[in-house]
Amino acid sequence: MDKMPRWADVALIPILNLVIAFALSALVILAIGEDPVEAVTLMVKGALGSTYGWGYTLYYTTNFIFTGLAVSIAFKAALFNIGGEGQVVLGGLGVALVCLYIPFPHWAVALIVAMAGGAIFGAAWAAIPAWLQAKRGSHIVITTIMFNFIAFSLLNYLLVNVLRPAGEMNPATASFPESTHLPTFQDMFSTADNIVFRGAPVNVSFFIALAACVVVYFLMWRSRLGYEIRSFGESPQASVYAGISPVKITMIAMLISGAISGMMSINNTMGQAEQLILNSAEGAGFVGIAVALMGRNHPFGVLLAAFLFGFLAQGGGELALWMNIPRELVTVIQAFVIMLTGAMDNMVRWPVERAFIRAAKRGER
Question: How many CA within 13 A on the CB side of residue 92?
C-alpha cells in the first residue's frame, strides 16, 4: 500500500480541512470578543432551524451547485476557469432577453427556453478565453478573470442605456411577465393550514441543479467525451499521443463549463429577482472555485460542498443580524476553507497518508 484509501481522500481529508477551518474561525471570533459556541449555535439555527432558513440555504446551495460543477468540469481538463462570475452575468442576460421578449404560455416552457438562453450566453462568453488558450496559448486564468470585468462593464452599459425601462432610475430591466415566474418551495409545499418556506427564494431551480449533478456524473464518468476530458487533464502529452485533440477538449470543456455557469441565472435572475439587476452573480462564480476544490471535482462532492457554503452564506447573514459579528466573517471562513483545501491541502494530506501507510505496514507483519 503506497497511499491512503479512496474514501479517506474523498471524505476524511475534506472533513479534517473543514474542522481546522472552523477552529481557526472560532479563534477569530474569540479575538473580536464574541462567543464562538453562541455564534455556531446561531448559524445552525438561522440556516437550518426553520423552513425559512432552509429556503435561503437551499437557494444559495443551488447557485453554488451550478458554479461548482462548472469549475469542476474545467478542472478535469486541466483548465482553471475563474470566469464564472462573468459567465453567470452573461447567462443572466440571455435569461432576461428570453423572459422579456418571448411570450410564454406557462412557466415550464419559459424555464426550458431560459435554461437554453442562459447556457448559450454563458458558453459564448467562455468560448473566447477557450479559443485564446487553445489557439494562441493565452493563459486561461488571465483571460477568464479579465472577461469577468468586461462582463460587468457590458452588463452595466446595457442596463443603464438599453434595457432600463423609460422613466426608471434603477439600473435593472423591467420585471419579467408572470408567465415566467418560477414556483417557489412555498408555492409547492405549503397547504391551506401550514405555510412553509414563507418568503424564501428557493424555487424549482434547485431540482434542476440536482439533475445537473447527475448529468455531469454520467457525462464525465460514463461517456467517451468525459473519458477524453479526464485523460487530457491527467496527461496532456499522453492524450495527444493517443489521438485526443487539445483544441477540441479545451473548447468543449470550457463551453460546457460556461453553459453550466450561465444556467445558474434561472435561479437568481428568473427565480428570485424576476428581473436582471447589477451584481446578479452575487459572488457565486468565485465561491464555485472553493466548492469544486472541496468537492474534489466530483458532482456528489460538489453537491455536499455547495450545501456547506450555502449554510455559511445564510448562517453568516444571521450572525451579522443578531450578533456583533460582521458579515465579512463568512468570507474569512470561506477563505480558510479555500486555503486548506487548496494551497495548504498537503499540510493535512501528508500526515494522514503517512498514518495509513504505517498502519498498513503494521498489518502486514
Answer: 36
